Amino acid sequence: MRQFLGVKLLAAAAVGVALSAPVSADMLGGLKSQATESLGSSLGGGSSGAAGLGGIGASMGLPSIGSGAASNVAGILEYCLKNKYLNATNADNIKGQLMGKLGMDTPAKQQQDAGYQQGLTGMLSGSDGSSFDISKVKDDLKEKACDYVLDNASSLL
Questions:
Q1: d(Cα 52, Cα 68) in Å, to the nearest integer?
Q2: How crowded is residue 76: how many other Cβ atoms within 10 Å of its Cβ?
Q3: Which pTM value belongs to this model?
């Protein structure tokens, strides 16, 4: 059912694009590869790791994660650890490295950082200014969102 809905949404987007503007072969090729990747990974045959979760993150509406959102990512990792949505060993290690890089090694510095504080509540703020409240979705989606953040956090180190 979920795959069928994804295919319908993808088809609707393709039709919308086709009707609204001239479509180049490159645009259709990109759309086709995104659909193939999305369907392949949902069927168990697609890419894995950060690339696979990038597709999941985009399909969930998660914002892109860049260096401008590093303190927020650290807060999200703490939120995910506290609520047991991530493997403690790996996530705590990456969060610690990120906190060290940001110079947020004391509770006072953590208290002063608005991005970190937002992250502690489950609010993911992207480097593009968009946001997503992880605390508002079902647990299985929280786990996927936390995995997405963890996989992207390592690129900020």
A1: 23
A2: 33
A3: 0.64
